[in-house]
Amino acid sequence: MRRRAVRVFILTLLILGVALAALGFRELHVHIPGFPRLDRAGTGPLGLKLGLDLRGGGHLVYQADTDPRVEVTFAQPVETAKIQEVLGSLGFADFSVVSRSDRTFTVKLVKRDAGRGQELRSALGERIGSISSFQVKEQPSPTPEQMEGVVKIIKQRVNLFGTEEPIIQQFGEDRVIVQLPGASGSRSQVVFKDDVTVEKLHSALQGLALEGFAIDPQGPRSFRIRTSSLNERERQELRGTLVDKVGAIESLQTTSAIDEAKRLIGQTARLEFKERTCTNPGCATFTDEPISAPNLSGDDLTEAFASTDPTVIFPIRRQNQGWRRGLEVLYQEGQ
Hints:
Elements: H1 2-23, E1 28-30, E2 38-40, H2 52-55, E3 57-63, E4 69-74, H3 80-89, E5 96-99, E6 104-108, H4 117-127, E7 131-137, H5 144-161, E8 167-171, E9 175-181, E10 186-192, H6 198-206, E11 213-217, E12 222-227, H7 232-245, E13 249-256, H8 257-266, E14 270-278, E15 286-290, E16 316-318, E17 322-324, E18 327-332
């Protein structure tokens, strides 16, 4: 019995020693063939990773939009407000109307109103005017492959945000959860009219009742200031302090860190179409002018492929207009 107690005591000391030794190193990387790899290199105490409950941050949930759409085209120009008025009078509670032109509109409905398409068409025709086309488009649920692609894209964009140890995972069949530890507080982008030193800016911020702040210089006049979350009164106080104690401000924009993360995650690619006119046979020199045709969008793109040749053009076909030649597609804003 005594011998067993000694063995238990020694084993306890051994486990305690290993635990203390592990905590003594902020970074720990152990990889033994045949066993899972062990890594620890967090920014919390003793190198531990702190979650949202201890460190704070943002928790976002994105859900696939499967609500139906109605595409309607009138014979004569129509104001958006008139369509909204008709929808409201019919009792459509949740809807949005997007104008694609002065005659073509997209109406977003909720699923429970998807079967009221004929009622909506009759009301629009009676109260507004003749309808050239009317189509209810059901939005299918996302496939597993599509959800996997969404998770991958969000991960790429969150990595650009710079949050340490983000958690992005699919939840259910149509939702994605994004946890951003440390994505809290406010970020102020300020540009002064004259050159300013970091020391002078730091001295001015010390006079404010801030729990903590950090200054990221981006030039002699431009700075990013990270602070605790600021309400409207505190934002006005920040502006007044900077003007009084630092100097005249050219621009100041304050956003919350979570809003900035949401903007980055929600950023999408935008297609910009321009008509290219070559000034010589080999198209070594050319001019690009915006296309005047209205409502040209990605739906009109019939072919696209990767290329590093700046003279490559993509064919665009618009309904009832045949082929347009010499069109360039430029990707902007997003991945």
